């Protein structure tokens, strides 16, 4: 059995179309289709069937796509053992993640990893919670987050490592009357002018909770994805917002205060496909991110 056939079926199961597989593997659609026909001939079963204008996996195709995960993970484990036997594994690790977390976690990790011969390729992004897990198809490590648990939405089947568990605080201008308080409640803040995030982003659920507890709508002046922009707006008195306590760098003119009475915390989680999580350099990179998070 050709492992490449199994890998192709897993890619098709994850990406959903021949075109998407071709784009991800830098091939033409006809080349992917030809490999599917070859796999069907070699394995003696039908692996795909028509589905509208595209195709979908048959029961046999889905069975083999699921088996591919175990096969690829086992092969990666063997490769890791061989790398460790040779000594000092080196290579490139591709990391993608939410801006506020990778800004805090990745820069301090670069030098120690480079000293071990590990190069990091970093991409920052800001998407809705469930979209982070999908990025694992094209990256070695995805740094995502969740307000509910250490298992971000859509991350089933991925190897997950909690890097940070932190409260989400209310960010206030330093001269704001509420800045003198040690703890805030939903009733304290609901009537403020808010710098919120777009709907669908995790922090939006906190403001939804404030509205639910108080029974009053929040007055939203801005919707901003980038935490640094939130900080800048808060600093000039444009409103109040939510910022993570541990991964927010100190900024003049901004103070953070805990919010009690609603769920206001998040988990920052590293996620990888099982086969990639077995690579020695990926394991070393995750360990370094955990070290940075603890310091």
Automatic annotation (TrEMBL):
Gene3D superfamilies: Periplasmic binding protein-like II (3.40.190.10), Winged helix-like DNA-binding domain superfamily/Winged helix DNA-binding domain (1.10.10.10)
A Pfam family annotated for this UniProt entry: HTH_1
Organism superkingdom: Bacteria
Keyword Transcription set for record: yes
Keywords: DNA-binding, Transcription, Transcription regulation
GO cellular component, one term: protein-DNA complex
Entry-linked InterPro entries: LysR_HTH_N, LysR_subst-bd, WH-like_DNA-bd_sf, WH_DNA-bd_sf
GO molecular function, one term: DNA binding
Residues annotated as domain HTH lysR-type: 1-58
Family: Belongs to the LysR transcriptional regulatory family.
Name the UniProt record assigns to this protein: DNA-binding transcriptional LysR family regulator
Organism this protein belongs to: Knoellia remsis
């Amino acid at each position: 059995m050709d492992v490449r056939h199994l890998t192709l079926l897993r890619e098709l199961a994850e990406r959903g179309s021949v075109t998407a597989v071709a784009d991800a593997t830098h091939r033409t659609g006809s080349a992917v289709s030809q490999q599917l026909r070859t796999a069907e001939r070699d394995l003696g079963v039908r692996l795909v069937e028509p589905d509208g204008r595209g195709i979908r996996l048959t029961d046999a195709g889905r069975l083999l796509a699921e088996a591919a995960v175990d096969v690829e993970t086992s092969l990666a484990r063997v490769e890791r053992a061989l790398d460790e036997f040779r000594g000092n594994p080196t290579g490139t690790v591709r990391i993608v993640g939410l801006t506020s977390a990778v800004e805090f976690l990745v820069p301090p990790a670069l030098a120690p990893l480079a000293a071990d011969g590990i190069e990091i390729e970093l991409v920052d992004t800001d998407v809705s919670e469930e979209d982070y897990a999908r990025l694992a198809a094209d990256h070695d490590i995805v740094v995502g987050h969740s307000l509910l648990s250490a298992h971000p939405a859509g991350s089933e089947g991925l190897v997950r490592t909690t890097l940070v568990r932190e409260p989400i605080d209310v960010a206030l201008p330093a001269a704001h009357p509420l800045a003198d308080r040690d703890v805030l409640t939903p009733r304290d803040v609901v009537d403020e002018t808010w710098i919120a995030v777009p709907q669908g982003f995790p922090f939006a659920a906190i403001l939804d909770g404030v509205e639910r507890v108080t029974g009053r709508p929040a007055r939203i002046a801005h919707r901003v994805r980038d935490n640094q922009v939130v900080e800048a707006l808060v600093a000039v008195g444009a409103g109040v917002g939510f910022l993570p306590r541990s991964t927010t760098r100190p900024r003049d003119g901004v103070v953070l205060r805990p919010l009690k009475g609603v769920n206001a915390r998040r988990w920052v989680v590293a996620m990888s496909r099982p086969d990639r999580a077995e690579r020695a350099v990926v394991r070393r990179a995750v360990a370094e991110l955990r070290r940075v998070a603890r310091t």
